[in-house]
Amino acid sequence: MMSLLGQSLVLVGLAACAVGAPLAFTAGARRSQVGVTAARWLAHLFSVAMVLATATMIVALVRHDFSVSYVAEVGSLATPLVITIVSLWSSLAGSILLWGLILALFTTIYCLTDRASQIDESAYTLGTLLSVGLFFSFLIAGPANPFGTTPSPIPLDGPGPNPLLQNHALMIIHPPTLYLGYVGMVVPFAIALAALLAGRMPAKRLQTMRTWLLVPVGFLSLGIMLGGWWSYEVLGWGGYWAWDPVENASLLPWLTAVAALHSAMAQQRRGTLKAWTIILVLVSFLLTILGTFLTRSGVVNSVHAFSQSSIGPTILTFFGICLVAVVVILALRVDRLQSAPASEALTSRAGAILLNNLVLVAFTFTVLIGTLFPIIAEAVRGVKVSVGEPYFNRMAIPLGFGLLFLLGVGPALPWGTSDSRQVRKALLTPLPAALVGMVLMAWLGKPSGSLLLTGALGGYALWVTFDQALRPGRAGRGKRSGTRQGFSLLAVMRSPRRLGAYVVHFGFIMTFIAIAVSSTFQTDAEATLQAGDTMEIGEYQLRFEALRVVEEPHLTAQRARMVVLRREGGKELAILEPALNVYPSQREPLAAPAVRSSPTHDLYLTLMNTGLDGTVGIRAILTPAVIWIWIGVLMMSLGTVLCLMPNRRPSTTLEGPVEQATEGGAA
Amino acid sequence: MATRGVGLGLALLALLLTSAPALVAQDSAAVELDPRLGVPDDAPLSGPALEALTQEISSLIRCPVCQGLSVADSPTTSAVAMQDEVRRLLAAGYSGDQVLVYFETSYGEFIRLEPKAQGFNLVVWIAPFAFLLIGAALVAMRVRSSRAQLADNASRSAPRSASQSQEESQDVDHDPHNEPERDPSLEAYRQRVREEVKP
């Protein structure tokens, strides 16, 4: 019954897309307002169908209706309610359904907010969105159908969702956030493709595309961070980023989209790089589809193996179609988008943006080739090779330094060409901050070259970021009258986009420094302990008290009770209980580490094994500054939200354009 | 395929057999070493130097039962055993390279987390640099072709009023909504408007 209902709803969505997509394209070609309106209604129908289909699935999950194939696959009577709902995205078919839902909602939101001045621009955009919708609703209706009927006899209970996903609350928000980022890339893609098809990209349309690009970038930042945090809290190895192919897949579109945001700024300011910005946006979307393929096909060895399936070839075909379509449309139409002739001095902000794009795209290429190389090598040589953390770290760290350098120098440079004295002054002023940063890093006690470089570049970039972010507050007053002026916070707040851009930069610097510090100063200790034994790490003494076994409906947990004491004085600080969780569906127990976070460092305990004689194997890891990585990325997401807010106009126009600082010199 | 699987199984078994006593008698030199290893290249190591090198080498070895983690990172039992094996070999004076080759002969090239820089693998090492170089060359060409345009712009904006150039020198971004669209085809009109509003 539920199967039939769900299946019909998906088919309604499929039909809406199948009719809507060609209708929108024809309406665009004929400039028919009626056609566009009809296509919009079909887009809303698609949305309604997807919302109802997802609701049907959730109801089926909650009611443990095992006649629905997906529920039989991931449901279990013993699973708590929240996990049951969340298991909507714990396996392939359900996650594709969620994908379709988000895609449909984005399409509807785009329709409701569409302010394109020309019919063909909105029509082509809508047509592209519905075409992508057509593919995903086809996936849901056919190859990845979650609404199949379970062959009888219908089981009385199911295996429950993948244990890894039940282990931590972060799993509730990490996948949907990432999907919002991944799927969100489709809207700027559609706008860019429509601009090519229509043969023009007016400033207003560019602004729309930029706004729609900010949405997925913000969600991707957040989603990637939540994934890293989840991996840190759950996987038990004390790290947060392993250059896993699927992690890489989420980073790739982020990199190109960030490059596009910057080049779009050059386009807005100087009319240059028009085609280049569009190419970056198109590539970002293609990378999300490629990423989906990598995740879903199982061609790469990944921690996300739970979502592997047979739909790989279908997605690869879709990727191929998109790639060909993009290349052909680009080849036919790109010359219609006329850019202003190149006018970038290397020592200007426009020049810095060029370099920023170069580094980001090279970064993308490196991560892409590193991720795909095992597949390529196996095809060419027939030998399995690995490209893992050591390779990526070696390649990515210099590029990361390049980005941090540009993030400092770029915003310090003026937009236009100006005389070299001015440029020199702008570049030299923040140097003391670089020195301070370097001294601070050296003071931490283990001065390595990369740490000192982080300090220098980070300090420089921090100075520039604050200077630029607060500039509207100072610019409005005094300068001309020569007095030492007051500071106007109001003026800063009045241009949230500019402020947001620098908040993003600030978050990036914070994250960068935190990663450098945490990876340099990480220490660990391992010990096998009897009850009452102690081990020491850093300033802590850890005493193992007892091992207890906790039976929960869906898992059996062995928990080692560890008392955390201060080494000097023996003051009791906390009790941590690292655990090994045994799920009925899994042979190997899963480690559930226990973490004690503080602003300066994290104490991270993993229960590695338990002996028959009551001993436990404990691994303790002390990592400084980890918490600032999460906070830094969170700031990047918050900054992105600020960038989405409309700029407030000054109440009087008399204040002049000086205070209308906008569009973030940065983001 | 099947033979490789069996080989891997045997290698794992051998590893378990050799590493289990190693856990107990780590310091005793009497431990049997695999004859394939040959003669150690380096002097025996101990203390912090041994720990540092163990960490370095085992971070280059893939934990065969994990998802892309190195032996140094992974908390699994087999990874811990492999790391002990690395430590034992380094302590006996084998060089890092010898240890890697030893693991490679047991597990295949897959075990190296960083692809060996030889043969076809050079692609993954060289391509990013080639890409960066080509990109840099393109940027350089663009900057060079910009010079003429910039000189042109500079001569055109020279007669602008003092206050305008001051605003620009303060580098406060303008709201693009208030700015005319930078459509090059409109440049002629813009020029005319500029002439007309000139005081």
What would you note in describing this structure?
The complex is a heterodimer of chains A (667) and B (199). Chain A has helices at 2-30, 33-62, 69-74, 81-86, 92-113, 119-141, 163-166, 170-184, 186-198, 203-234, 245-270, 274-297, 312-333, 349-381, 389-412, 420-428, 431-443, 449-475, 489-494, 496-521, 626-644; strands spanning 523-529, 534-537, 540-552, 555-566, 572-576, 579-582, 590-592, 594-597, 601-610, 616-624. Chain A is of the alpha+beta class and 667 residues long. Among the domains of chain A are: 1-160; 523-627. The longest helix of chain A is centred in the middle third of the chain and has 33 residues, at 349-381. Chain A is globular, with a radius of gyration of 27 Å. Chain A starts with a helix and ends in a 23-residue tail after the last helix. Chain B has 199 residues and is mostly helical. Chain B folds into 2 domains: 2-114, Cytochrome C biogenesis protein (Helicase, Ruva Protein, domain 3); 121-197, no CATH class. Chain B contains 7 helices and no strands. Chain B has helices spanning 2-24, 47-58, 77-91, 96-107, 122-157, 162-170, 187-197. The longest helix of chain B has 36 residues, at 122-157. The model of chain B is unreliable at 1-31 and 160-181 (pLDDT under 50). At the A-B interface, helix 11, helix 14, helix 15, helix 18 and strand 9 of A face helix 5 and helix 6 of B.
